[in-house]
Amino acid sequence: MGRVSGRSCIVTGAAQGIGRAIAEALLEEGASVCFADINGDRVFEVANLNRKTYGDKKVTHAQVDVTDRSAVRAMIDHTVATFGKLDVNFNNAGVNRPMNFMEVTEDNWNFIMGINGLGCMIGMQEAARQMIAQGTGGKIINTASIASRQGFDNVAPYCASKFAVVSLTQSGARDLAKHDITVTGFAPGVVATEMWEQVDQDLMEIGAAERPGQAMEEFSAEILRGRVAKPQDIVGTTTFLAAPESDYMTGQIVMIDGGMTLV
Ligand code: NAD
């Protein structure tokens, strides 16, 4: 028996990076998983690789834009049609596009807040609707960040969007407790994924770094654990948040940042 045996889970942003690692760790611990992402080709490939190991009954996938409510509903309906129910919903899809604070545009703000903020809220609402209809309770788990604890320069909308994830986690926890639905989140620090490769490039383009890797090095200098994270460093906690072991937790964000932000 795995730690999440029999649980039906959705993970958004599961085509790569942290989301893929979360989804694969859930499979390893006995769950059924819908890999969901806006990148349809890539999520199909990743789900197929996992189908080879875990079989059709445990793995499915969906192309979804988390800002599109009808697409989110279709992803949930597809998961329920495949696995019979929904127990755990990870709202993990996220984006960043650094800009100097004084250069931030409405487009930059709307793009980031749309996916990281509104996308998280729509995911929470639609997952909760399904869980309420089932009458089984459930778990909603949101991806926050160290950027949800402090405002950093060059990524102001990203920080605002991740602060929003924290407040949505708290509001959702208060509203959904009566349905036996818990809402938690986790906050990674610096994780070596494709997102950081892009952020590194963007920071050079806006003049905030001079050479590849510099921004990540400078940003990571204070990590008490002495190194940046790999997606694998995150998944012990995410599986815990999906498992019965965490049933008495709600409204909380767990920091998984190697000791960058001591709050
Ligand atoms: P990533 O860029 O490697 O993966 C993000 C995934 O989300 C991609 O597969 C992308 O296609 C998908 N996505 C983007 N927009 C989407 C949309 N509208 N609908 C559905 N899917 C969409 O990033 P990652 O590093 O794995 O980040 C995952 C989450 O962790 C994000 O919420 C991010 O903000 C957060 N986070 C990352 C770090 C880090 O250092 N990498 C740190 C803290 C928090």
Model regions low in confidence, pLDDT < 50 over at least 5 residues? none
Radius of gyration: 18 Å
**Separation of the first and last Cα atoms:** 35 Å
Question: Roughly what fraction of the amino acids lie in strands?
Answer: 5-15%
Overview of the molecule:
With 263 residues, the chain is an alpha/beta fold. It has eight helices and seven strands. Helix 1 crosses helix 8 (235-242), helix 3 (69-83) runs parallel beside helix 4 (106-134) and helix 4 runs parallel beside helix 5. The protein starts with 7 loop residues before the first strand and ends in a 7-residue tail after the last strand. The structure holds nicotinamide-adenine-dinucleotide. Nicotinamide-adenine-dinucleotide is lined by residues 12-13, 15-19, 37-39, 64-67, 92-95, 115, 119, 143, 145, 188, 190-191, 193-196.
